[in-house]
Amino acid sequence: MMANKGTSGIFAPLVVLTRNLTGEKEFNKFRGKAISLHSQVIKDFCKPLGVDNKQVQGVIRLAKKNGEKLGFLA
Asked: What is the mean pLDDT of the chain?
């Protein structure tokens, strides 16, 4: 198993347990879909507000950093 960021966040134990129960391949597939969906929600939210793509990408990066801090990327 690879070393992951965010292993000390509040959600890290749940993430690790879920990965162990579902298997790494299925877990990574699910997490990839969730990240993609979240990114799309951010884009869809920003579009009607006229936020430019550079700022949208910054918000997505911020969401990733917050996910690491919370342990979602454990």
From this structure: 91
User: Are 61 and 35 in contact, with CB atoms under 8 Å apart?
Assistant: no
Contact 74, 3 (CB under 8 A): no
Per-residue pLDDT of 6-22, as tens digits, reads 578 999 999 999 999 99
Among 17, 20, 3, 5, residue whose Cα is nearest residue 70: 5
The model's pTM: 0.80
Neighbour count for residue 27 (Cβ, 10 Å): 16
End-to-end, the C-alpha distance of the chain in Å comes to 11
CA distance 68 to 51: 24
Does the CA dihedral 9-60-44-35 come out positive or negative?
A: negative
Measured CA to CA, the distance from residue 50 to residue 53 in angstroms comes to 9
The tokens 């992951």 sit on which residue? 4
